[in-house]
Each structure stands twice: as structure tokens, then as C-alpha cells.
Design a protein that fits this description.
30% strand; SAM-dependent_MTases_sf; 7 helices; 4-stranded antiparallel sheet; alpha/beta; 25% helix
Length: 254
């Protein structure tokens, strides 16, 4: 059994933020915040797996009231170094079960994090939990990668996803359980503790877009939009990720 508290510990929280670079770069965060602000439609938003506030803080600064759910005590502590509870309230708990209220116009779950739930049952419960938080007509946005099983060489169970100086990312697959383990290998002089290499592993359960749509339907959502990225580019068979927007029917309009 994976202990998520140990996986997302104080070391992980400290290493998570990369201000101005990578997923914290303006080129990534700018379009993300723009789209989410529009989808919130003037109402409040709740982020599942809010982490250290990568998206929540700039979204709140853009004028959208944001609350959050986060499992990791260490991630919440890092968030609290940046903003107080009065600005961004957070409930500690499992995003498939924990509640921080209702009548939000937007719930969102970004950067592949729904895959941190390692069973289909947990992932379906997450959709149900999002529905419980939303007002009629509310939206649930999920950002997720597309499994790259076509890149698996015959007879091999893994792929090298990233190879650059000082860093390797190797993904190994269990196609029966739809599990993938990402092996993060850091090496070279940038390691501060004197070791030659450092290895971290993160487990995920990958989800095909069609399976994600079925989970949404089970929880009462309808697919409203799907893009390849936050720039609203077209999603195609070659896309490696997607941003999917699901909406609850507004019974008041029927």
C-alpha cells in the first residue's frame, strides 16, 4: 500500500516549487489561470489537490475566490508560508472524500493529479465528490496526460520519457492494472548532499480519455470541451495530454 503522506513529505514539498520555471513559468500559468477564471464565470472555485498553491494563488490574485483540498500536511504547510487561511481556505483530506462546502461554480484538478488515485473506484469517487461541491451548471476541469503505450518497445515494459543533463525520467507500465511508475533519476554536481545520484518514484493509475468521460457520466457530468492544452488547441490522436471540461446539467433551465 502506497503511503501518500510519505510520498509527498516535507522534502517533496520543499523541492516542488520552481518559481518562474517549468510548470511555474508564466507561459504555463498564464493560460491556465485565464481559462479557469473564464470557466469560474464570476463564482468561487475549489481546487482538488491544491498542493503548494501553484495555480490557486495566481487564480485568487486574478479575482476568483479559491478554496482547496489537499492530502499532504507538508504541501499545506508550504502553501501556508505563502498565503494565509483567510485568503485560501484548505481542508486536509483525500480529494475523493473530503468536503470544503458546496455551490462552487468551478472545481478543478490539474497536472495529472487524478492519476495519484490508484484505483478506478477512487477515481470515480473523486468525480462524485466534485459533483457534490458544485452548484447546478458548475464545471469540473481535469488536466491529464494521455498514456503513451504505443511507444513501448515490443517485449519491454518501460520508456524513457525525458533525458537531459542531470535528469532522467523512466516510466514503467503494468498494463493489467493500468499502473505506471515514474522513476525520477537526478545526478551530477547539482546534488547538494554529495551523492552521485538520487532516485524518486511516483506511482499513478493512467486513464484513457474515453474512460475519464465514462467516470464523468457516472457522476452526472456531461463533456463540454476538450483541448490538447490550456491554449485551447485541438485535441487529436497525437495529443500527449488534454484539458477536459465537464459540466453538471442545470435543472433550473429545463
Amino acid at each position: 500500500m502506497i503511503n501518500q503522506q510519505q510520498l509527498w513529505d516535507h522534502h517533496a514539498a520543499k523541492q516542488y516549487d520552481t518559481p518562474g520555471e517549468g510548470m511555474f513559468s508564466p507561459g504555463v500559468l498564464g493560460p491556465t489561470v485565464e481559462v479557469l477564471s473564464e470557466l469560474a464565470a464570476g463564482g468561487p472555485a475549489v481546487e482538488f489537490a491544491i498542493g503548494t498553491g501553484r495555480v490557486a494563488i495566481p487564480l485568487q490574485e486574478a479575482g476568483v475566490p479559491v478554496s482547496g483540498i489537499e492530502l499532504s500536511h507538508a504541501m499545506i504547510a508550504r502553501l501556508r508560508e505563502k498565503v494565509g487561511e483567510e485568503r485560501i481556505p484548505v481542508v486536509q483530506g483525500d480529494m475523493a472524500e473530503a468536503s470544503i462546502g458546496a455551490d462552487y461554480t468551478l472545481a478543478f484538478l490539474v497536472f495529472n493529479t487524478i492519476a495519484n488515485l490508484l484505483t478506478q473506484e477512487e477515481q470515480v469517487r473523486c468525480f462524485h465528490n466534485a459533483a457534490r461541491h458544485l452548484a447546478p451548471g458548475g464545471r469540473f476541469v481535469v488536466e491529464l496526460w494521455v498514456p503513451q503505450l504505443r511507444s513501448l518497445p515490443p517485449g519491454h515494459g518501460g520508456t524513457v520519457e525525458v533525458s537531459r543533463p542531470g535528469y532522467l525520467l523512466v516510466d514503467t507500465y503494468d498494463v493489467l492494472r493500468q499502473h505506471v511508475i515514474s522513476h525520477h533519476v537526478q545526478f551530477g554536481p547539482e546534488l547538494s548532499d554529495g551523492r552521485e545520484a538520487q532516485i524518486g518514484r511516483t506511482p499513478h493509475r493512467y486513464i484513457w480519455p474515453a474512460e475519464l468521460d465514462l467516470m464523468a457520466r457516472i457522476a452526472g457530468f456531461e463533456l463540454e470541451s476538450r483541448w490538447a492544452d490550456w491554449d485551447r488547441s485541438e485535441f487529436t490522436a497525437e495529443s500527449r495530454s488534454h484539458v477536459s471540461v465537464y459540466r453538471l446539467p442545470d435543472q433550473r433551465k429545463t
